[in-house]
Write a structure and sequence with these properties.
Layout lengths: L6 E6 L2 E6 L10 H16 L5 E6 L3 E3 L15 H18 L4 E5 L2 E3 L1 H8 L2 E5 L3 E3 L13 H9 L1 H10 L2 E3 H7 L4 E3 L4 H12 L4 H14 L4 H15 L3 H12 L9
């Protein structure tokens, strides 16, 4: 088992929980955290026992973005250096991961931390959590995929407002906008997350993974391309053990026992 220093990694009953663990800097991302997060995601992807991943943070914040005080961010270094080094590997890894990733939004998600939350497949937030595109407040532009994710979720106009004003979006408003799946009191957060992981830990994991791939491709395809893609993946899904189990359970009028294979 890898000994992580900037995050914790646990696996229990098919649920892998990755917890950003730099509470003294509100889980801001430095090179070390980026490296360990990428390793943790890679491990979760390749561990057969992992059926669903939860990404969360220790303390009051989920993640406040890039750590501007980290030694590697000395004045004079191009801003793109950290983007290419840290977020180019991590964000696509999350979106292409053939397993569902649920963000347990325990507190503020700002800057690239907001991008990490948006890169998840579902966000379950405590009601006082906030998402902030804070870049403009220090004269920068959004990065780590935020312009891509927010434009798709809320449209260009709202995305422009959030980004150009650095607007703080409370979890309740984020739910109305379709960014957040649920916004619940802090004391109900773990139960709300568990309700989702209970489902995905017993779902047909390969099918879920293909759904993620299809949705990624559908954004950039026309109708006929999408239908061709659906047919291709349907053939693949039809050869899985979970499909065989699903059909048998349907015939026998019982609940399916999916194994993720």
């Amino acid at each position: 088992m890898t000994a992580y220093k900037t995050l914790t990694y646990t696996l229990e009953e098919g649920v892998c929980t990755i917890t950003l663990n730099r509470p003294e800097v509100y889980n801001a991302v430095n090179n070390a955290l980026a490296d360990e997060l990428l390793l943790a995601l890679h491990t979760a992807e390749n561990e057969e026992e992992v059926r669903v991943i939860v990404l969360t943070g220790t303390g009051k914040a989920f993640c406040t973005g890039h750590d501007l005080k980290a030694p590697e961010n000395a004045p004079g270094n191009p801003a793109s250096k950290a983007i290419y080094r840290n977020y180019f590997p991590i964000i696509p890894k999350m979106r292409l991961m053939p397993k569902p990733i649920i963000c347990r939004l325990n507190g503020v998600a700002a800057g690239a931390g907001c991008s990490l939350a948006l890169a998840c497949d579902m966000i379950i937030a405590q009601e006082n959590a906030e998402l902030i595109q804070i870049f403009v407040n220090i004269g920068l532009v959004p990065d780590a995929g935020s312009t891509y994710f927010l434009t798709q979720l809320v449209g260009r106009s709202k995305a422009f407002e959030m980004m150009s004003k650095g607007t703080r979006i409370k979890a309740s408003e984020a739910k109305e906008l379709g960014i957040v799946h649920e916004a619940v009191p802090l004391e109900a957060l773990d139960a709300a997350v568990k309700a989702q992981t209970d489902y995905y830990a017993k779902a047909p994991t390969k099918s879920i993974g293909m759904i993620k791939k299809m949705l990624n491709q559908a954004y950039h395809s026309d109708l006929m391309q999408v239908m061709e893609m659906e047919a291709t993946y349907q053939d693949i899904a039809g050869k899985t053990k979970d499909h065989q189990e699903g059909v048998m359970a349907f015939i026998q009028k019982r609940s399916p026992q999916f194994t993720g294979k």
